[in-house]
Amino acid sequence: MSQNRDRVHVLFVSIPAHGHISPGLGLVAEITGRGHRVSYQVATRCT
Q: What is the pTM of this model?
């Protein structure tokens, strides 16, 4: 089986506030460090 088929694409969705974004960044780093793709969606303004 191709290694590419073993990878996943994860979508994180967060409300636009530092207290909600920052805690997820460690998890995003871990997921991407394992070779997976992550998209992180946040509204345009961060409060």
A: 0.69
